[in-house]
Here is the input.
Amino acid sequence: MRKKRDPRIYTRLTHPLVRDSRDEPFRQAGWDEALSRAAAGLRAARGAFGLFSCARATNEMNYVAQKFARVVMGTNNVDSCNRTCHAPSVAGLSAAFGSGGGTSSYAEVEETDLVVMWGSNARFAHPIFFQHVLKGIRNGARMYAVDPRRTSTAEWAEGWLGLNVGTDIPMAHAIGREIIHAGLANHAFVRRATSGFEQYERLVEPWTLSLAEKVTGVPASAIRELAHAYARAERAQLCWTLGITEHHNGTDNVRALINLSLLTGHVGRHGSGLQPLRGQNNVQGGGDMGAIPNRLPGFQDILDPDARTKFESAWDTVIEPHYGLNLTEMFEAMEEGTLKAVYCIGENPAQSEADSEQAVRRLRALDFLVVQDIFLTRTAELADVVLPATAGWAETEGTTTNSERRVQRVRAAVTPPGEAREDIDILRDLAARLGHEWRYADSEAVWNELRSLSPDHYGMTYARLEEEQGIQWPCPDPARLEPTYLHGRLWADDPAMRGRRAPFGLVRHDPPVDLTDETYPIRLTTGRRLDSYNTGVQSGGFASPLRRGEYVELCPEDAERYGVVVGEEVRVSSRRGSVLAPVWVDTALRPGLAFMTMHFPDDVDTNRLTIEANCPIAGTAEFKASAIRIDKLPVATVRS
Here is the structure.
């Protein structure tokens, strides 16, 4: 039976820490010594450096962090946990529309006629957004859930389509084919605003309802029902999260869903749009601020010489005219020995990356690692220098940007403990030691510099953000607010105003990389629970009446097949590693499907099982489709 484990409680960092060698423990240091050591280590690694920025910190911090990478260290090697989750959403939306943000506002979900939740247990993973969904349902909207599990979200749905893991593209193509064959495609919009329809029509033609049923496991009648409901709705919102993106072909999955909106005209109108739901408070903002390897602040392409010239003039620097390494590529470069130092701000990749044992090994191979955080995380334990920062949600002034592109003010409510310092102040002082004097009086000064360089943010002064209680980008004019939805241009009568056509994505079915077989017969998918947060560093030390720790969840049939009961500890193994975990039985699962979370890695390190099979476009790993087996543990012998 399950052994009782006490959760690890991470204590707050209050003083800088350094170690004199990798073999020695940390010792407390003053800020001067810690920053001098950090500066020396980073200076030695110029040309072989990468920066991990933070999706939980403010826009202003992310802006200064990417500026540090590009100006101080001369590299575009900057990224954040966006790579772990929604990079495929950004890539897919950018390919279709030229912009990587969700196209609608939350309020529009309350006023729509149909909501499709695809690969999203929003009731647990995005509870605030789900309140808007519930308001929409109360206002008469219908909801469909497409998910391998019959989740808590699916319990509110009019229809649940429980597809096999990794068959989202066949499902989407079958829906598209049915819409075309039923005469429900919005051909006027297709002709007006899209390109590649004929090729798309040929692509989806083989995906009949009967073939889709065989591949996805969803009855043909259910696929047909969703196709007709989505196409016939006056307004419809198509929402997704990591069930779509955390696959080796995550960007293709996103493009397949976008195709459905282009086919029906469910984009660019009030109440009709595409909603990638972000899991942390500033995943959207980190990318908007340029904390990604291919875009400057304001989502301006690094390869655009005019954009580079603007930033080079403002920053008095030269920006490398090529894309940097993303997070996935930086870990590969650690393996190759070409990336020798990392400055990690507020991220915990030692526990959040797929194949976590490999991630730790690569981090250990670095010549120098600086971690700036509020807790001594597993990643921080590997560092040479640890810098104590403020909590972005309670001890910092600034802004964040949520999933609906709404920029909102964040205010310091409490005083940080000990010698913990603002992220921006730390970055500024470190830059000064490396020869760059940046004089920012406060976070507003940083924001105003960003506004001067990003047309999408120019109209958002701090005063206006407070007055409006948040503003969605784009907001180029200080005297005007834009519509709450994006891409209304696609409906313009004048072709010149419509601009670039939105191309259909010609993507093909590509099954999960980690195949199930007789040795590894169960498909493991991962996700989140309502009571916990990410790797548990912030939430694990707090009690919750909902929390039961980590389990491997099985359906009743599989539990009976393996002869295991609730609470019994078993060995869960994949082709990369194994963990011990107690069993939980969940009727929301089907035979051959298991579920685990990443919330308790100190107890059960689920990411030892997951596979680093990455999307070639976005670099996101296939967290959602590992092959595993369950082994009973031998009964301990009792000695007399």
In short: The CA atoms of residues 555 and 589 lie 5 Å apart.
